[in-house]
Amino acid sequence: MDKEKQMLGLYVHVPFCAQKCNYCDFNSYKIEEKNQKKDYLISIKKEMELYKEEFKNKEFTSVFLGGGTPSILTPEELTILMENIYSNFNIKRDAEITMECNPGTLNKVKLKAIKSLGINRLSMGLQVTQDHHLKYIGRIHTYEQFEKNYKDAIEVGIDNINVDLMYSLPNQSFDEWKETLNKIINLNPSHISAYSLILEEGTKFYDMYLNKEFELNDEEVDISIYNYTIDTLYKNGYHQYEISNYAKEGYECKHNIVYWKCDNYLGLGPGASGYINNYRYSNICDIKEYNKCLEYNKKPIEEKNVLSKKDEMEEFIFMGLRMNEGINLDEFYEKFNVNFKHKYNNILDKLKNLNLIIEQNNNIALTQRGRELSNTVFIEFID
Fold first, then answer.
1. Residues with Cβ within 8 Å of residue 75, at least 6 apart in sequence
2. Which terminus of the chain is less hemmed in, N or C, by CB atoms within 10 Å?
3. Could you report the per-residue pLDDT of 25-67, keeping only the tens digit for each?
């Protein structure tokens, strides 16, 4: 418990992409102007400096460079970014330092630079192995490019690699998903994230769906694909530790666990969000506005909310139940001075009777059926 309490994450958002994928609703944009990356690096350095004093006595247990596509930065630009992180914050000696990468933006020289900068984990966005699907969803690379980049990363000595995959894509058959999953298993990455496509408003896919350009799987098909994924990965040495995440023993993503445990994290960069003590904030998304704010040495926060005890409890439940281990009842009491079983007695009885949750080892966790219908469970805990 004490160790968990000390977890502190640093998230750095790099908003640039070679092109926007059709399903993506993250704060990202294509580089349009010559000095965009240079201006961003100046601004993010200033933002780090604004938080330096506040965090001088704290140690970060994980760092995550997300995007966008952080691997769109050159080795020189990555060096500037990482050196600024190290000079402004105390990064724990054994910290997990992850960088999101897109195939097609990597080569051996860049991978060697990444390793030399202390980045010890890659999260590679692949989604699917068939080239016609990659093209349809707006990816810039082929499967062959991904495999080359993946093998190059292993060769330069980065052996902690997550591969992002996506199922229930437009016109993707179950057999194609099986082929994708098994191809990646054969590469033996330490971690696999497998998500079902979610249509987000404002994305190209959302508009295409409204125009009836494709149909989505019905829920039962989605669930059968999900169950196949869990079973296949388990048989191959990957245990599911969160709704969409699977790891070899000891390779769970420490940074994401910070989010799911509702521990503190500092978010930097345009559109990044953070959670410090009991307040949550989000930064300005527009990069020009973000840069302008930092020219005046002002934190680029757009919105800041202090969470009530009720908000914190609900969030702790939603996030905790995402993990297979669930919510520890002692931890809940220690954090909120509330007896979980007393407060939610009727809800727990109802969900147990529906076989959606289980109580074991002083933890409340979702059953497999509960994970399939997780949103139904979460709604029950909203007052």
1. 109, 110, 113, 114
2. C
3. 555 667 777 789 999 999 999 999 999 999 999 999 999 999 8
Residue 23 has pLDDT above 70, yes or no: no
User: What's the rounded Cα separation, in Å, for the pair 266 and 264?
Assistant: 7
Kindly report the CATH class assigned to 2-260.
Answer: alpha beta
Provide the residue ranges of all domains of the chain, joining segments of one domain with +.
Answer: 2-260, 310-380
Residue linked to tokens 């019905």: 218
Any bridge partners for residue 97, and if so which?
A: 63
Q: In this predicted structure, which of 30-34, 62-66, 228-232, 265-269 has the lowest mean pLDDT?
A: 30-34
Q: In whole angstroms, what is the distance from residue 318 CA to residue 322 CA?
A: 7
Distance CA 101, CA 98 (A): 10
Q: pLDDT tens for residues 182-212?
A: 999 999 999 999 988 765 666 666 566 567 7
Asked whether residue 179 carries a pLDDT value surpassing 90, the answer given is yes
CATH number of 310-380: 1.10.10.920
Side-chain-facing half-sphere of 336: CA atoms under 13 Å? 21
The backbone torsions φ and ψ at residue 47, rounded to the nearest 5 degrees and listed phi first, read -65, -40
SS3 state at 301: strand
Burial class (CB in 10 A: 0-12, 13-18, 19+), 191: buried
DSSP SS3 for 172: coil
pLDDT at 208: 64
Please tell me the distance from the alpha carbon of residue 113 to that of residue 80, in angstroms, as a whole number. 12
Average pLDDT value for the chain: 90
Burial state string for 309-329 with b = 16 or more CB within 10 A and e = fewer than 16: eeeebbebbbbbbbbbebbbb
What's the farthest any 2 CA atoms get from each other in the chain?
60
pLDDT score at 19: 63
Q: What is the mean pLDDT of residues 241-248?
A: 96
Under 8 Å between Cβ of 14 and 73 = yes
pTM attached to this predicted model? 0.92
> Tokens standing for 338?
């509330």
- Enter the DSSP assignment of 239: E
Report how far apart the first and last C-alpha atoms of the chain are (Å, whole number).
Answer: 28
For residue 75, how far is the Cα from the chain centroid?
A: 23
SS3 content of the chain, % helix, strand, coil (to 5): 45, 25, 35
